[in-house]
Design goal:
55 residues, mainly beta, three-stranded mixed beta sheet, 0% helix
Amino acid sequence: MNTANLGWLANYPNNPTGKKYVAANAWQWTSNFKFAGQAGKLDVSQLNNSYYLND
């Protein structure tokens, strides 16, 4: 991370709540989340801005 690119962080707390790492572009808080009706486990991230969106 630097001032030009605030980066993407992966940090897997036991119980993710609130907005953690708000200075980063994105925070991946799990790599094995199971959504209802989904066959496999997925990565889940929180976007804090539109840096990774194709505007």
